[in-house]
Amino acid sequence: MHPFHTIIEPFRIKSVETWKFTTREERIAALVRARHNVFQIPAEDVLIDLLTDSGTGAMSSAQWGALINSDESYAGSRSFYRFERVVRDLTGFTHIIPTHQGRAAERILFHTILHPGMIVPNNSHFDTTRANIEVEDAEARDLVIPEGRQPSVVHPFKGNIDLAALEALLDRDGDRVPLVMVTVTNNSGGGQPVSLANLRGVRALCDRFGVPLFLDACRFAENAWFVKQREPGQAERSIPDIVREMASYADGMTMSAKKDPLGNIGGWLALDDDQLAERCRTMLILTEGFPTYGGLAGRDLEAVAQGLKEVVEEDYLRYRIRSTAYLGDALHRAGIPVVRPIGGHAVYLDARALLPHIPPLEYPGQSLAVALYEAGGIRGCEIGTVMFGLHPDGSEGPAPMDLVRLAIPRRTYTQSHIDYVVEVVRWVAERAKDLRGLRIVEAPPALRHFTARFSPLDDSGVRAGP
Ligand code: F0G
């Protein structure tokens, strides 16, 4: 090792994409057209797009090269067998069922095993996971440790599940729990990792009560990196070794290959149970495709297989986690409330703390997301009362936290882009008291954050402007 400390990008740039700069006036007009919902803004009108780290990463030249070598056969494609081998080596599961993205794996699994009235515990369900459970008239229950709900509390494994709460649930209502899930890393709770010790504890409870455990494993490599850095005794282990141990505690996993597997599309459902796999494959054929492509082209399977090799490299993970922390640490030093410690794939601004004058039901996170776009063309994503405040019975209440997630696409932005983000967030934070809440004018009954229409409120709490 050399004596220098600067952590640099472990790649150079071969192909670039130029973008368009917009004026503040153009962005205000775009917000009005989008009804103040940043999901409705055309991406061309966004300067730095931190809406999600899902499918937005840059592929490597090795991934692009693999596309040309793909096999597009309907049945038994060579690309499938490569994909299957890489996933199986990394996870150890018997059945690898490709899907077009993570939510397809969730839908197939939940539709196959859930009945009305059942309960699925998790540290925190993300939006589509929750919705795919609720659509089966089952309950998605979040059991993250109490530290995981307090943005400013520092804890090395804030994504851990509350084992006492899980035990109490299984003790009381175990017959209604068909599976336990753990999300690594915990996306809704700040991109926070789960420790091996916690997974071991969940496994022991699942064994005692005879319930299977599934990982929602989108950000498995980032989780493994945190384990290596933070969990006693893990520093000398390789990332694939830690990943295999994480998977060894589970009976299966759902995966979005749009995150850590470095694909622009893709996912899988992996599991050991032969009979359940058979039932899931039948559902797969119904809605996704034949089991050796499952809603993907052969080239997508190649890109994911190659991405899985790259994402577990330590030079990549060191850069990845450090560059997310670079943004988070700069904002924290500037006195802006963020979820701490900084997560793996994103920095989460604590909008409830930054905008105490906006009550949760006037959506402080949405207000902040809109302001970041207006000020600097930066698009983040509200993870708060808009996303999680509406319950299946139609009632509305504050979500546990009101956050704005600035998700970092993989290998896409440079340090100067991030320096610009810091400058814009600081500028907005200095004017936080001028921000106002919003009202929802129109929204669908589920997953409302994607399409809801908002109207800004003025000082008296009534609708202002268009
Ligand atoms: N589980 C988690 C923890 C996720 O973060 C996501 C997607 C999914 C499941 C579903 O995967 O998008 O491939 O269907 N999260 C994205 C995000 C959309 O922005 O965090 P998908």
Q: How do the strands of the widest beta sheet line up side by side?
A: 2-8-7-6-5
What integer value in Å does the Rg equal? 22 Å
Count of DSSP-assigned helices: 16
Mean pLDDT: 96
Which term fits the overall shape? globular
Which molecules are bound in this entry?
ligand F0G
Low-confidence region ranges: none
Give the tally of β-strands: 14
Counting helices, strands and paired strands, the structural category is: alpha/beta
Give the topology string: H per helix, E per strand. Answer: HEHHEHEHEHEHEHHEEHHHEHHEEHEHEE
Q: Main beta sheet: strand number and arrangement? A: 5 strands, mixed
Helicity range of the residues? 25-40%
N→C terminal distance: 59 Å
Fraction of residues in β-strands = 5-15%
Write a concise synopsis of the structure shown:
The protein is 39% helix and 12% strand. The protein is built from 16 helices and 14 strands.
Notable features of this structure?
466 residues, alpha/beta, five-stranded mixed sheet, three-stranded antiparallel sheet, 16 helices, 14 strands, binds ligand F0G
Task: Please tell me about this protein's structure.
This protein has a five-stranded mixed sheet, with helices on both faces. The model has no long low-confidence stretch (mean pLDDT 96). The chain is globular and about 60 Å long. Helix content is 39%, strand content 12%. Helix 4 runs parallel beside helix 5, helix 8 packs across helix 9 and helix 14 crosses helix 16. By secondary structure, the chain is an alpha/beta fold. Helix 7 links the parallel strand 5 and strand 6. It is built from 16 helices and 14 strands. The structure holds ligand F0G. The site of ligand F0G has 15 residues, from helix 4 and helix 5.
